[in-house]
Amino acid sequence: MSHVRLLFAKLRPRGIQLWAMQNVAAKIFLQSGCGFSSGVTESFLNGSSSNYVEEMYYAWLENPKSVHKSWDVFFRNANAGVPPGEAFHRPPLVSLESRSSQFQSQGLAMAPAKAEKLVEDHLAVQLLIRAYQIRGHHVAQLDPLGILDADLDSFVPSDLITTIDKLERYGLQEADLDKVFRLPTTTFIGGDEISLSLREIIRRLENSYCQHIGLEFMFINDLEQCQWIRQKFETPGIIHFTNEQKRTLLARLVRSTRFEDFLARKWSSEKRFGLEGCEVMIPALKTILDKSSEVGVEYAILGMPHRGRLNVLANVIRKELEQIFCQFDPKLEASDEGSGDVKYHLGMYHERINRVTNRKLTLSLVANPSHLEAVNPVVQGKTKAEQFYRGDTEGKKVMSILLHGDAAFAGQGVVYETFHLSDLPSYTTNGTIHVVVNNQIGFTTDPRMARSSPYPTDVARVVNAPIFHVNADDPEAVMYVCNVAAEWRNTFQKDVVIDLVCYRRSGHNEMDEPMFTQPLMYKQIRKQVPVLKKYADKLIAEGTVTLQEFEEEIAKYDKICEEAYTRSKDEKILHIKHWLDSPWPGFFTLEGEPKSMSCPSTGIPEEIVKHIGGVASSVPVEGFKIHGGLSRVLKSREEMIKNGIVDWALGEYMAFGSLLKEGIHVRLSGQDVERGTFSHRHHVLHDQDVDKRTCVPMNHLWPNQAPYTVCNSSLSEYGVVGFELGFAMASPNALVCWEAQFGDFHNTAQCITDQFISSGQAKWVRHNGIVLLLPHGMEGMGPEHSSARPERFLQMSNDDSDAYPEFSPDFDICQLYECNWIVVNCSTPANYFHVLRRQILLPFRKPLIIFTPKSLLRHPEAKSTFEEIKPGTHFQRLIPEGGPAADNAQNVKRVIFCTGKVYYDLVKERHNQDLVNQVAIARVEQIAPFPFDLVKTEVEKYPNADLVWCQEEHKNMGYYEYVKPRFLTVLKYARPIWYVGRDPAAAPATGNKNTHLLELKRFLDTAFNLESFEGKKF
Fold it and tell me: How would you write 237-255 as a 3-class SS string?
């Protein structure tokens, strides 16, 4: 018994293959007659052999006749204490070559040495097959130039060297090449044949794995998926195209190539980031779309860098050629709206009929900047939203395609972040097809200096995505790979990567000289025959097309381009609205303007407040056990609702819940948002006795409410903020919020903030209502958890500090419409409630940046009443002084303007110094766009007072540099606005608690020293 258990212990480790160990159990398995043709082999090759042996052992214990005779002997001997190496006796009947019933019935015995050699040879063949499956891509002919190795290494793995003198490493001889071996079930190279000679096995393996397609998939830990890929690439003759398919492929290559040629002829001195060297990308994308449309996809969302974008717009998205060509006209005037962007950054949305499937297909190419790969999570978020609103839970109707450059795919961290969203429940898009345009060079950087991994695509291995490397100068191989990739995504709902190994015919752009840095590569490129000519010559030689037909196809497309070029000269104005990638039908008027310039009251009836409060303070699921501490939280909520009070968490609950009632989908995403970083939210309840049993009370508010999605994200900012931005693109009728764990964590999403959120509407006329919730406040927590860096957002706000505005009844709404985003720092739960609801009730969408509190979440004074959120109430852009000082305005000596948490510090200090009649405190709740009108009113109310801006942030940070010139504009420089706060500093906060308190005391003393500014020169 102990020997058997010892054997099991040796077999248990995952990944140790029995046949590779050549141990006793493998020989029993192979010689017992239940070998290669049975399903058992799969368990051996998939690393689960120990389970199989153990199950067989227990079966033998019950009935010794239930296993093969050889296993019976082995188990008997092992139980008797015979050492494992001696417990095995070869069975009397073995014939791996024929396994004929005749051999078994005649009881012919095989000589021990011959039997052992036969077993070892079969094991060797299995090893050989597996070596090609794992490492065949290392010797595949992937580089069209024939000068580089796609994996950066010219070394050939020794287990793939199958010359006669090297076969000895497998224990095989030259004589074995014509020997017939039975094929394992883990290969499809035999087709309908179950046995092949070793020579033929090697030939077929080389055809499958070492030609123009290199496969990386054996790291996938799912046998079914591995078998699926093997069948797609190993089956003899499976890569086959009809003449019609070949002619279609040629026509698409003609369009791809001649489009670039046309641009080069007409605008030879213009940057266009052409596709020369990878012209096959256009038919590749069209093949993916054809196959995806065939299996039911209705909407494909694409993201890509600048290289080849114009060609994709023209020949995949089918943007009108004249609209593309007019972009090259230097006399083209800009439209009134937006700054626009360079032509190779623009996006497009188009609905058309797919000509191959005759099905409707909607395509969206998302606009993006030169920040490489930044568009990846944006595309994923938009795709997720489209799937969500269509009820497409498996991604069968909506899909995403991402194109990448090789250097960026390996070098940009957001690629890794986005991959790690691919299988998360609230972020998955059910598989993305990644197409890497592998130029084998960055801008000027050799790939050996640009990455440490063998391939640029190795990052995809972390999510078990298969990687198909393919020589881009073999169009039929590319098309086959694209078909398989589309089928893979539809079958398994998993990511897949196509690595188009190609070259870049020009430099980084058409004005760049690549010979400076890559002379040998570009000498070869200058001699390289274009893929269109190669493929046309091939089809002409085989009689699929004639030379005349080929030339007519070229002439036809050249004529299309010339006619479009003529029409493009009539375009005088660039209308950015023609390049929308995410239109919102029905939201705006036909002219793209809001239907009105007003916003209704954001208040809600008391009965709705009480209903939401009742759900927020209860567990709406029977038999659901919550944590004792949470019970106290819910009890506290219940008491507040009885007293007509809401705190910060309840204010948010009221805003979200009331929007859900009105049919607005609410999505809250970020690190730990379900509970809330500061344990205040608790939107997801966890049963204390049942694993994974949760309850979201917000989804139990109303019978026909909109869904509420609250989801903890991966520990990512760049990727997740991009994702939520993309989600918010899809529909204006959703409140999409991202909350940072701490406000300064948005630093690592700065690219999304700068390139998409602050400037997206100006560049691409892309309205977006995303909300960023950034916990902010100086509370002695150190430099990393204090400041959300409001100065950065304010610096990028586009309102003019020097322009004295014209005040009108709808001034506040017009301000919001003209700004690029809204920046607020609310000091009350009611105002937080109103600004969230206003975000949806506005007739347009703008990004909203909210500096949210930490200590105020539980501050006894930071509460609001039902009266402050009832019908007729609104968001207060500025909250004026409401105490005794307001009734005694003529005698007020100082007006302190502030924003956010510092207000409560100021109120407390004012009370302590008994200055409630002499000092007024006003809160600027909406900082950008600046409330000029309300500040003017508040200033004029106190004609004899000093004016002070007080902030807890350092002088070179926070709000002062933004508000000061705007105050002076309002005052027309007639009165000064003094600064009170911390001195300038490099770090946003001190890390010493005592220093923090000293700084606080110092600026509070200054704020209430009524003689502090006397005699000072402004």
Answer: CCCCCCHHHHHHHHHHHHH
The dihedrals phi and psi of 765, each to the nearest 5 degrees, come to 50, 40
Q: What is the DSSP string of 108-176?
A: ----HHHHHHHHHHHHHHHHHHHHHHHHGGGGS---TTSSS-TTS--PPPGGG--SGGGGGGGT--GGG
Token pair for 741: 């764990």
Q: Decide which of 717 and 165 is more confident.
A: 717
How far, in Å, CA of 787 to CA of 851, rounded? Answer: 9
Instruction: Please name the residues in contact with 85: beta carbons below 8 A apart, sequence gap of 6 or more.
Output: 24
pLDDT over threshold 70, residue 26: no
pLDDT at 12: 39
| Fold held by 606-776+825-869 | Rossmann fold (3.40.50)
Which pair of structure tokens corresponds to residue 520?
Answer: 């040998």
- Rounded CA gap, 978 and 963, in Å? 11
Q: What's 243-579's CATH class?
A: alpha beta
Angle of CA points 217, 219, 225, to nearest 5°: 55
Q: Write down the pLDDT at residue 435.
A: 98
Q: Is 103 exposed, middle or buried (0-12, 13-18, 19+ CB in 10 A)?
A: middle
- pLDDT(597) > 90: no
Q: At residue 513, what are phi and psi to the nearest 5 degrees?
A: -105, 105
Q: How far apart are CA 620 and CA 697, in angstroms?
A: 6
- Measured distance between the N- and C-terminal CA atoms of the chain, rounded to whole angstroms: 95
Token pair 């610096």 in the structure block, residue = 795
Q: What is the mean pLDDT of residues 11-23?
A: 36
Q: Express each pLDDT in 477-522 by its tens digit.
A: 999 999 999 999 999 999 999 999 999 888 777 778 888 988 888 8
Per-residue pLDDT at 746: 93
- Domain coordinates of the chain in residue numbers? 2-110, 115-234, 243-579, 606-776+825-869, 879-1007
Question: What SS3 string covers 674-719?
Answer: CCCCCCCCCCCEECCCCCCCEECHHHHCCCCCCCEEEEECCCCCHH
What pLDDT is stored for residue 33 in this prediction? 39
- Pairing verdict, β 694-695 and 685-686: antiparallel
Structurally, what CATH architecture does the domain formed by 879-1007 represent?
Answer: 3-Layer(aba) Sandwich (3.40)
User: Residue 193: which region, alpha, beta or left (left: phi > 0; alpha: psi -120 to 50)?
Assistant: beta
Distance CA 839, CA 833 (A): 10
Q: What residue has token string 């109430």?
A: 873
Domain 606-776+825-869 and domain 879-1007, same fold? Reply is yes
pTM summary value:
0.88
User: 144: which 2 tokens?
Assistant: 């069209």
User: Sorting pLDDT into bands at 50, 70 and 90, what band is 61?
Assistant: confident
How far from the centroid of its chain's Cα atoms is residue 617's Cα?
35
Task: Identify which of 63-77, 97-111, 359-373, 726-740 has the greatest average pLDDT.
Answer: 726-740
* 399 Cβ contact list (under 8 Å, min separation 6): 292, 297, 299, 300, 301, 383, 429, 430, 431, 432, 433, 489
In angstroms, the CA 582 to CA 49 distance is 52
Q: How far apart are CA 349 and CA 362, in angstroms?
A: 8
Task: Indicate if the pLDDT at residue 163 is higher than 80.
Answer: no
Give CA separation, 863 vs 349, 650, 778, 839, in Å: 46, 10, 20, 22
Structure token pair of residue 336: 């009134």
Cis peptide before 929 (omega within 30 of 0): yes
Q: Judging by beta carbons within 10 Å of its beta carbon (0-12, 13-18, 19+), is residue 609 exposed, middle or buried?
A: buried
Average confidence (pLDDT) over 308-324: 90
Distance CA(761)–CA(54), nearest Å, equals: 65
| Whole-number Å distance between alpha carbons of 252 and 247 | 9
Write out the two tokens for 663: 């049919």
Read off the amino acid at residue 1011.
Answer: E
